[in-house]
Amino acid sequence: MNEKTALMKMIKKYDFALYELNLYLDTHPKCMNALACFKKYQDLRGKAVEEYTQKYGPITADQT
After folding, report:
1. Three-state secondary structure call for residue 54
2. How confident is the model at residue 64 (pLDDT cuts 50, 70, 90)?
3. Which of 14, 15, 16, 17 could join 45 in a cystine, given CB atoms 3.0 to 4.6 angstroms apart?
4. d(CA 3, CA 32)
5. 32-47, pLDDT tens digit by residue?
6. Is the whole model's pTM more than 0.90, yes or no?
7. Where on the phi/psi map is residue 57: left (φ > 0), alpha (ψ -120 to 50), or beta?
8. How far are the Cα atoms of 19, 41, 45, 46, 54 from residue 16, in angstroms, in the given order?
9. Measuring CA to CA, which residue among 48, 39, 58, 47 is closest to residue 9?
């Protein structure tokens, strides 16, 4: 697997984790552990997306 594919897979994994955490937080809004985990994955995803776009271009049409 090349670096581009590996990086995209990582972004998709972060997206999945964020989606699931979002669902959990909908029903458990006061869970500080889940909120901390959500913020951690948001940061990780942001860094991965930034790295991807710098190396390979935008992922979506609204990215510059």
Report:
1. helix
2. low
3. 14
4. 34
5. 999 999 999 999 999 9
6. no
7. left
8. 5, 10, 11, 14, 23
9. 48
